[in-house]
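CO-FOLDING WORKSHEET

Operator: S.A.
Ligand of interest: flavin-adenine dinucleotide
Run index: 487
Mode: holo prediction, single chain
Checklist:
[x] sequence pasted
[x] SMILES validated
[ ] output reviewed
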Amino acid sequence: MSLTQRMLDSAKAKADSKANARENITIAGAGPVGTLLAVILARHGHPVKLYESRPDSRIKSIYQGKSINIALSDRGWLALEAIGLDKVVKQQAIAMQKRVMHAVDGTITEQAYGTESQAIWSVSRAGINEQLLDLAEQEPLVEVKFDQRLVDVDFNNASASFMHEQNIEKVSADLLFGADGAYSKVRRLAQETPRFSYNQSYMPQSYIELHIPANEDGSFKMAKNALHIWPRKKFMLIALPNPDGSFTCTLFLDFQGEVSFASLTERADVEQFFETHFADAMPLLENPIDEFMEKTANPLFLVKVDPWAINEKVALIGDAAHAMVPFYGQGMNCGFEDCRELGQLIAEHHHDWSKIFPAYQAQRKINADAITELAKRNFVEMSELSGQASFLLQKKIEAEFHKRHPELWTPLYSMVTFSPHLPYSQALAIGDIQQEIIQQIMQIPNIESCWQDDFVYQKLLQLVHAVFNDKQKNLSINKQQQGQSHD
Ligand SMILES: Cc1cc2nc3c(=O)[nH]c(=O)nc-3n(C[C@H](O)[C@H](O)[C@H](O)COP(=O)(O)OP(=O)(O)OC[C@H]3O[C@@H](n4cnc5c(N)ncnc54)[C@H](O)[C@@H]3O)c2cc1C
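OUTPUT RECEIVED:
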């Protein structure tokens, strides 16, 4: 072998060994997102230390037996499938194929979420977190530490300080991820770094959780495979099923104002509030008045930040990067999508973090902003529109048109919930265009009686084609203009 060849081989070996020495990564926060991230990073060969401020919930009860349940949908399932956890999670999950709306007079209406085979799934947030922790601990490259609160970060070198009991330990690493949730400490510390933009806004509503127990024989008191809503315009109650036959309910109500958590302080007023607005739920709920009087309402807020990655050393993920309101049931799903797409970027950019971080920010922020906006808008859909006949009719027409022309029209809810490869930002943009079109259809005289007639769908088709042609025209005008400016 020539000297030149040997030198080339040695340089290649050095480069290979450098490439194989994967960066050590610290993750702050072993919630669902931080734990999923740990598994994904470890499977890409990165040694991961995962620090959680709370005790291990599998050993010490921290939820007082009442962890909330949340809706897992296709984006979340795709991420779980990628790490092989979907089947385990599905064993405890309950399919919800429809919304069931409970009117003030007790009348019940239903709306399917998608096609017959589509559903969102009620899962326990604590349960899925624990299943992820079990999996993370099986990864040889993951070390999980509980009772360790992140208290400081050095954004220049990704080292972080964690407090355990009264001791502070400084942990060095090559990279740090803040997966420490909506109240993220990493994000708060990042606000002290140069050029970090931060925007937080509160929603008028706050929430408390209530409970509908199972019947004595363990059966459900209402339809099991549904998400139940009591839409009351300015406020609403929702209920998701649990495997033990109970439902976890959430009451969303203004924090302050005429009818609000702040105004309802007297027991008699609270009783009257429930009797007036939720009479049909009263026989089902367990001690709603006591619960209302005793509980402190939790606020709802949205957070947007920029950048998501600082100095190519520290990045935010999950709620730490994009806290949103829960009205689209997408917060955790979006966080899981962050992790899955980050994993793809690691492979695509061959562990070159100077490329991964900018790509991660470019790909994820626009989509997190979009779902944050959609989630905010969806309060009106859930609390007000879902109780209106015209809105339910609009949804039926959209579903029928989708059945006839699946390539031309997918309802917004399905784009967000059942189209995991469609970016949220595109769902938002397409949804806005579709909304304008469907509003024209809803203006057809007597649409309530003729909505199944063919001419309605012919007109819808024409409107869709007209928009499509306009778009093509705009595109070619833009192309021409670009061509001219290059001349
Ligand atoms: C009422 C309600 C209903 C919701 N419904 C849905 C739904 O139907 N579908 C859906 O997809 N999403 C839903 N969400 C949102 C979902 O709960 C969150 O998006 C999800 O929990 C985010 O996961 P995370 O791991 O990013 O953050 P978290 O779940 O908040 O986890 C963060 C972890 O970091 C730890 N931590 C915090 N600070 C520190 C620190 N300083 N050091 C170390 N560790 C720390 C915390 O203890 C926690 O374990 C809902 C949220 C609410 C409030």
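REVIEW:
Residues 445 and 451 are 10 Å apart (CA to CA).
The first strand starts at residue 25 and ends at 28.
[x] output reviewed
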